[in-house]
Amino acid sequence: MSDSFLIKGGNLLRGDVHVSGSKNAALKLIAATLLTDRPCKLTNVPILKDVEVMFDILRSIGSDINQRGRTVYISNKNIKPSTLDYKLVGKVRGSVVIMGPLLSRFGSVVMPYPGGDKIGRRPLSFHFNLFRDLGFSVKESEKNFTISKSKKMPQVSKVILDGFSVTATETALMWAAGQEREIEFSTVAEEPHIQNLVEMLRRMGANIQVKPQNQIVIRGKKSLRGVDQRVIYDYIEAGTWVVAGLVVGGDIRICNFPTQDLKLFLHRLKRIGANIEIINPTTVRVKTSPNLKAFRMDVRIHPGIAADLQSPLGVLGTQCNGTSEIFDTLYEGRLSYLKELKKMGANVKILDVHRAYITGPTKLKGIKFVKKEDIRGGMSLIIAGLVASGQTFIKDAYQVDRGYEKIDQKLFKLGANIQRI
């Protein structure tokens, strides 16, 4: 597959676009199949680079994977964690969650540190402290870490996570699903893909109660069933299409739209004058909105505005009237794309690693981008290229392909002038 995008801006977007399955959900459901030696079936699995790498990670330890389009059959009957491919784990941040099911099934795990997007510090301290609190021994070295049972394992019944970490929550749930006892976890994250994972673990045989104030009580089973589980639609992709429609203009219908997961997001955009129509619970229409007002958006844990939508919102700010403020409360390295927008003519002032002002509206001009370090930043530059005058060249399309399925094909069908070269 080619590794560059060439975009000629100025075309309005018109027609229907279909949201794919959630990458964040798919990676965790794939990992959860490791909890059982019985066959599992996953449907609506997106065709993405990160998902391909996750399959290869499982294959490296002996998983039998048969993919037929967006349906995947997985058998983990004869897996050996000792053959784990370190290089592959280093490519995908989401691979960190395999520690939970492997530790639950085998009692110990040795893993390298995961890779993925370079968007600031994302340490594994929450994960390590989780298992230390459960009584495990955690040893860290320069290249890998080892988690194993201590000589005297306490029967801990309540654990407080150090913060609302999505992957630490998922790791905790997958480990506990294979334990024959009840454990209460507090300070858990509640993102839609975590809810998708909870649904799968319940179907496998775990008893899970989701309680108020970010608490989950889970009673697992040593012998979990195989499962037929559907991956939810990607609310990040859905939200990105909304922003693209507003920035570029036109008239698009977004199908497979998870409106329940984006209620606040849509509400806030309507506040600034966005022409958005919720046709039904799974279809949203976005039309040209010429008089968008400036906004202040702070990204937070669910049900707040998702961090993965911060970059597209930054591009939106360049087309709004007045000065908008972006406040990323979760990551300190995710504003670097604004420096690239500035090269296109955007009026941007980065206040610190979390906050920035964007004054609009401004006419963007196409330029050449050599490389982007993260999925969402790369997608934001595609949106900018679609509204910019002239040509925009984006090298390293692989980064976008990691998180957006066939993005160039979807845009082309909507009328965008975009091609791989």
TrEMBL record:
- Which protein are we looking at? UDP-N-acetylglucosamine 1-carboxyvinyltransferase
**Family annotation (InterPro entries):** Enolpyruvate_Tfrase_dom, Enolpyruvate_Tfrase_sf, MurA_subfamily, RNA3'P_cycl/enolpyr_Trfase_a/b, UDP_GlcNAc_COvinyl_MurA
Q: Where is the Enolpyruvate transferase domain?
A: 8-411
What Gene Ontology cellular-component terms does the record carry? cytoplasm
| The organism's taxonomic lineage, starting at the top | Bacteria, Candidatus Spechtiibacteriota
Task: List localization entries.
Answer: Cytoplasm
The species is Candidatus Spechtbacteria bacterium RIFCSPLOWO2_12_FULL_38_22
Q: Which residues are the signal sequence here?
A: none
| Family statement | Belongs to the EPSP synthase family. MurA subfamily.
- Keywords associated with the record: Cell cycle, Cell division, Cell shape, Cell wall biogenesis/degradation, Cytoplasm, Peptidoglycan synthesis, Transferase
Q: What class of enzyme is it?
A: transferase
NCBIfam families recorded: murA, PRK09369.1
Q: Which GO terms describe its molecular function?
A: UDP-N-acetylglucosamine 1-carboxyvinyltransferase activity
A single BP term in Gene Ontology: cell wall organization
Involved pathway(s): Cell wall biogenesis; peptidoglycan biosynthesis
Could you tell me what reaction this enzyme catalyses? phosphoenolpyruvate + UDP-N-acetyl-alpha-D-glucosamine = UDP-N-acetyl-3-O-(1-carboxyvinyl)-alpha-D-glucosamine + phosphate
In short, the EC number is 2.5.1.7
Query: What CDD domains does the annotation carry?
Result: UdpNAET
